Amino acid sequence: MQALAICGSPRKDGNTEILLRTCLDRLKAHGIAGELVLLGAKNVKPCQACNACFKNKNRACVMKDDDFQAIFEKMAAADIIVVGSPVYFGSATPQIMALLDRAGYVSRANGNLFSRKLGGPIVVARRAGQNFTFAQLLFWFMISDMVVPGSSYWNIAFGRAPGEVNNDAEGLQTVERFAENLAWLADKLCGPDARRSPEP
Q1: N- or C-end of the chain: fewer Cβ atoms within 10 A?
Q2: Is 130 helix (H, G, I), strand (E, B) or coil?
């Protein structure tokens, strides 16, 4: 069992990254190994709607930027995919949407590679916009035929300055419960033997 968390914030060590690491730490406590991808350090261009992925059906995008294909292969190999974004003017960042748009197309062109994987979104903002952005990202999970568990609240938190999200106890608890539900659901669908032992 392998989890992949993707941070759509261009800010390193920011609030989105903190929330995703919180999720991965809780999954690790349940024996589910995880990896964090930081899009801020990657080059992923937006989809050009060329439909070449549907013509070629080779699990690849014809656009030759530096990082998309490697991240896509990690997504295809993962059992759990969690994406996180801060709110930019009421919506998800261009970085995360560029990745999800292209990954969604390549997946669908090759038999829906994300079908029945587990996962969901996590969103953080200074004051408002979390629910819209959460729904925006949730639409991607739904159309990708993925399974998204709930939590004690929507997976949102509050924070602007780096580290400020640590003051949002309810937001952190919601993310932890979301991770607990991912682990619980993984057990129900795959059984505990499918989990990997926690890495040292």
Answers
A1: C
A2: helix
Q: Which pLDDT score, from 0 to 100, does residue 198 have?
A: 41
Cβ atoms of 129 and 167 closer than 8 Å = no
Strand ranges (DSSP E) for 79-160?
A: 80-86, 118-125, 156-158
In angstroms, the CA 106 to CA 111 distance is 9
**Of 155, 110, 125, the residue nearest 9 (C-alpha):** 125
Q: What is the mean pLDDT of residues 21-34?
A: 98
- Cβ atoms of 40 and 95 closer than 8 Å: yes
pLDDT at 128: 96
CA separation for the pair 130, 122 (Å, rounded): 9
Query: 56: how many CB neighbours lie within 10 A of its CB?
Result: 14
Structural domains in the chain, CATH included, are 2-191 (3.40.50.360)
In the block, tokens 């560029």 appear at: 98
